[in-house]
From TrEMBL:
Enzyme Commission numbers on file: 1.14.12.17
Site (Involved in heme-bound ligand stabilization and O-O bond activation): Y29
Domains (record comment): Consists of two distinct domains; an N-terminal heme-containing oxygen-binding domain and a C-terminal reductase domain with binding sites for FAD and NAD(P)H.
HAMAP family documented for this protein: Hmp
UniProt-annotated binding residues for FAD: Y190, R206, Q207, Y208, S209, F383, F384, G385, P386
Catalyzed reactions per annotation: 2 nitric oxide + NADH + 2 O2 = 2 nitrate + NAD(+) + H(+); 2 nitric oxide + NADPH + 2 O2 = 2 nitrate + NADP(+) + H(+)
Residues the record lists as binding heme b: H85
Protein name in the entry: Flavohemoprotein
Cofactor info, note text: Binds 1 heme b (iron(II)-protoporphyrin IX) group per subunit. Binds 1 FAD per subunit.
Record's function text: Is involved in NO detoxification in an aerobic process, termed nitric oxide dioxygenase (NOD) reaction that utilizes O(2) and NAD(P)H to convert NO to nitrate, which protects the bacterium from various noxious nitrogen compounds. Therefore, plays a central role in the inducible response to nitrosative stress.
Keywords (A to Z) from UniProt: Detoxification, FAD, Flavoprotein, Heme, Iron, Metal-binding, NAD, NADP, Oxidoreductase, Oxygen transport, Transport
Natural source organism: Paenibacillus rhizoplanae
Positions annotated to bind NADP(+): G274, V275, G276, I277, T278, P279
């Protein structure tokens, strides 16, 4: 337990963290990787290069400082991050290393302002927060390991089929290389794929939504090919160009909190932009299989027709549903974008909405859904990469 004095010190330094947080976390990652380059096998290099990981960690540290009296307030965020950690293979022994370099970064950036008293308070607070993560992640690892066909960390999978879905998206059908089946998963979850690209020093891990309803013997991911010169594109370009049927990749067990509630039959709207359609395909297929009378709206936005994926799959699943409205919008064409008026005309305010896509698209959609009366509990969403704060959230 933290003493009241420790809590008071941590809370009093929250404004300083808000001001210097990204500088502190930038110094933290630089020094961490200089001392422990092996951790580059775990961290996303592209998010590092773009500053997204630094900003996310700064937000997390600030949130912990603000809520130090009631850390249960940040438990939902802890669970979401813990899912990503488990999917990446973060282990308990990583936490003391991170704590050491976070405190050193606070001292380096704040200088004399970071007194021994402040550093001691933050060391104690970090210990409590780290223990919370380790405990949550231990439960997740146990559940992943003990479920039917489960495992921890990474396991070899064979690419059994590779199917082009659009001008930029290709699906990879993956089966365990040892011939076993795969664990069940919830529609909306993701897996991590780990590859060692020829010429690269460190392995790279990317998380991809599972894009079909659960099957006993395979996973399907659908990967958007990013631009070759985009740091985010290294793995997707490698998968598209170099990984073929018969090749092997390493895969983690399914994880994630962006889940379709399959126990209800109230109206549901799936609203996606670009490759954000991938978790929606798993959800749509599941509704078609499990609750075919559930009222469904499926709205998707793509730049143009050549980039719109899964047209035939959507038609097939729609045919199994008794009450569905689907529409695809082309932002580069006469249909334009999904507006608030369109959402209002399609989405039943008494049901639930699931939103996934690029950050600006999601901010716009979530903002419009809130405007016409949907509550936080009714709107479900997931960002790609490190969690970013929603404006207006």
């Amino acid at each position: 337990m933290l003493t009241q004095e420790t809590r008071d010190i941590v809370k009093s330094t929250a404004p300083v963290l808000a001001e210097h947080g990204t500088t502190i976390t930038t110094v933290f990652y630089r020094n961490l990787f200089e001392a422990h380059p092996e951790l580059l096998n775990v961290f996303n290099h592209a998010n590092q290069a773009q500053g997204r990981q630094q900003a996310t960690l700064a937000n997390a540290v600030y949130a912990a400082a603000v809520h130090i009296d009631n850390l249960e307030n940040i438990l939902p965020a802890v669970v979401q991050i813990a899912h990503k950690h488990v999917s990446l293979g973060i282990k308990p022994e990583h936490y003391p290393i991170v704590g050491e370099f976070l405190l050193k970064a606070i001292k380096e950036v704040l200088g004399d302002a970071a007194t021994d008293e402040i550093l001691s308070a933050w060391e104690a607070a970090y210990g409590v927060i780290a223990d919370a993560f380790i405990g949550v992640e231990d439960s997740m690892y146990k559940e992943a390991r003990e479920q039917d066909n489960g495992w921890n960390f990474f396991k070899p999978f064979t690419v059994v089929r590779k199917v082009q879905e659009s001008g930029s998206i290709t699906s990879f059908y993956l089966k365990p290389a040892d011939g076993s089946n795969v664990p069940d998963y919830k529609p909306g979850q993701y897996i991590s794929v780990r590859v060692l690209i020829p010429g690269e020093q460190y392995t790279m891990i990317r998380q991809y939504s599972l894009s079909q309803a659960p099957k006993p013997d395979e996973f399907r991911i659908s990967v958007k090919r990013e631009e070759t010169n985009d740091p985010n594109g290294v793995v997707s370009v490698y998968l598209h160009n170099e990984v073929n049927e018969g090749d092997t990749v390493e895969v983690s067990a399914p994880a994630g909190e962006f889940l379709l509630d399959t126990s209800v039959t109230t109206p549901v709207a799936f609203i996606s932009g670009g490759v954000g359609i991938t978790p929606m395909m798993s959800m749509l297929e599941t509704v078609a299989n499990v609750t075919p009378d559930r009222p469904v709206v499926f709205l998707h936005s793509a730049r143009n027709e050549s980039l719109a994926a899964f047209g035939k799959d959507i038609e097939k699943h729609a045919a199994a549903l008794s009450n569905i409205k689907t529409r695809t919008f082309y932002s580069g064409g006469p249909d334009g974008v999904i507006t608030g008026e369109i959402l209002k005309s399609y989405v039943d305010v008494t049901g639930d909405a699931y939103v996934c896509g690029p950050v600006p698209f999601m901010e716009a959609m979530i903002g419009e859904l809130r405007k016409f009366g949907m509550t936080e509990a009714q709107i479900h969403y997931e960002f790609f990469g490190p969690a970013l704060q929603l404006s207006n959230a």
